[in-house]
Amino acid sequence: MMYLPGNNPNMLLRGHLFRPDGLIFDLEDSVPANEKLAARILVGKILSFLDFGGCELTIRINGTDSDYWRDDITAIFDAAAANPQITGIRVPKVESPQEVVVLDEMLSELEDKSNIPPGHIRIFCLLESASAIWRAFDIATASSRVTALIPGGEDLAADLKTSRSKDEIELDWIRRMLVVAARAAGVDALDAAYPHIHDLEGLKTQTAFVRQLGFDGKSVLHPNQIPIIHEAYTPTDQEVRKALRIVQAAEEAERRGQGAVSVDGRLVDRPVIKRAQYLLQLAGPMHGRDTHDVPPDKG
Amino acid sequence: MRKAIAGSMESMDCMVSVFERPSGTGITLSIGGSGSELFHSAIVNTVNRTLSAFNIQDIEVHIQDCGALEPVLSARLETALLRYSVASDEREP
């Protein structure tokens, strides 16, 4: 999902042309205090008027410790009533489950008033302090609207009393903890953006690492970063073919009432089947195709 | 004289300036920039619709267009008018 500065019409209008999976209309860090009102109105108008193809649309509001967040949410609802592609808010600096409960209540009230289906607007929580990471599971389970946990970068490094290094070793355990909390809570784990926008090799290395840790995706700051992340998260045809064989064998075994499944001469158990199902789920939207269209294995 | 501005001269944006006019003198509009001729009537329609929504009868509006689409123009004018209304409130004792 790509961040777009909320007061820049050029980027807001053209961002989807770079084909990210989602767009994040930012009202927070990229917008100076004297332009908050202008950005809120601009984002609201653009979201109400335009179609963004298949992109998932979310808005990063200002934190609940600011004077802006209530107005941000109100503006979003005016747009969300006109555009069902708006599916969530990214909330920065979430510190406690209580904050999520307050947000949930406000969203429920506004959904009711705006004739938006209950629970339609989801919450993506940005955790940007050590205490927030420590409470990640409680935050994720504070409301059924919580869809994803996302670690912070700069703020977290500062809170850890260190600085953000190139390889982000200081965030290593933060990422591991966040994935565990997200999985335990049944929500997605989305990684922070890679700030060195011209270092595509570094991005490739980091994306491979966070995918291996279990992250479901990664935020993007620049269009150049999109293909690198898509490639890292796109399963190969070989992986898709193998996953298809596993899932088909598991379905066949279930029909026959058999417990054990064998694929390519190896016994396959439930976690492997689950992983294969997840890989096929990932392959569908990434490839923009039906996984049944995978070319046949030549071997 | 009260005034307010919104927008920028970046591509796909526009700069909107609004100025106070005495009561009963009506609306004046000047349009310049890249889309001023080709999209003149569309810009006028957007301005009139927005001013009407704000129930404003007397104001001077300057628009310098840099290729702004309708929602962008509408957003910039709305922002300028909201800033103008706050400036107006601040003048009251």
Question: Tags for this entry?
Answer:
heterodimer; A: 299 residues; eight-stranded parallel beta sheet; two-stranded antiparallel sheet; 10 strands; globular; B: 93 residues; alpha+beta; four-stranded mixed beta sheet
Q: Trace the largest sheet of chain A across and list its strands.
A: 1-2-3-4-5-6-7-8
Task: For the record, give the distance between the C-alpha atoms at the N and C termini of chain B, rounded to a whole number.
Answer: 16 Å
Low-confidence stretches of chain A: 287-291
What is the gyration radius of chain A calculated from CA atoms?
20 Å
Strand content of chain B: 25-35%
How many whole angstroms does the radius of gyration of chain B measure? 13 Å
* Sheet with the most strands, sense and barrel status of chain B: 4 strands, mixed
Oligomer: heterodimer
H/E topology pattern of chain B: EEEHEH
Globular, elongated, flat, extended or rod-shaped: what is the shape of chain A? globular
| Tally of DSSP helical segments of chain B | 2
Dominant shape of chain B: globular
Distance between the termini of chain A: 37 Å
The H-and-E topology of chain A, N to C, reads as: EHEHEHEHEHHEHHEHEHHEEH
Q: Give the beta-strand count of chain A.
A: 10
Number of extended strands of chain B: 4
Q: Classify the helix fraction of chain B into a percent range.
A: 25-40%
Largest sheet of chain A: 8 strands, parallel
Residue-averaged pLDDT of chain A, rounded? 91
Most residues in contact: chain pair = A-B, 15 and 18 residues
Poorly predicted regions of chain B are none
Describe the structure.
The complex is a heterodimer of chains A (299) and B (93). With 299 residues, chain A is α/β, with parallel strands linked by helices. Chain A is 47% helix and 15% strand. Chain A is built from 12 helices and 10 strands. Chain A has an 8-stranded parallel β-sheet. A two-stranded antiparallel sheet of chain A has the order 9-10. In chain A, helix 3 (69-80) links the parallel strand 3 (56-60) and strand 4 (86-91). Chain A is globular. Chain B is an alpha+beta fold. Helices cover 39% and strands 28% of the residues of chain B. Chain B has helices spanning 40-53, 70-91, and strands at 3-7, 14-20, 27-33, 59-65. In chain B, helix 1 links the parallel strand 3 (27-33) and strand 4. Chain B is globular and about 35 Å long. Chain B starts with a strand and ends with a helix. The model of chain B has no long low-confidence stretch (mean pLDDT 91). Chain A binds chain B through residues 8-10, 13-14, 37-38, 41-42, 44-46, 48-50, and chain B through 6-7, 10-13, 68-72, 74-76, 78-79, 82-83.
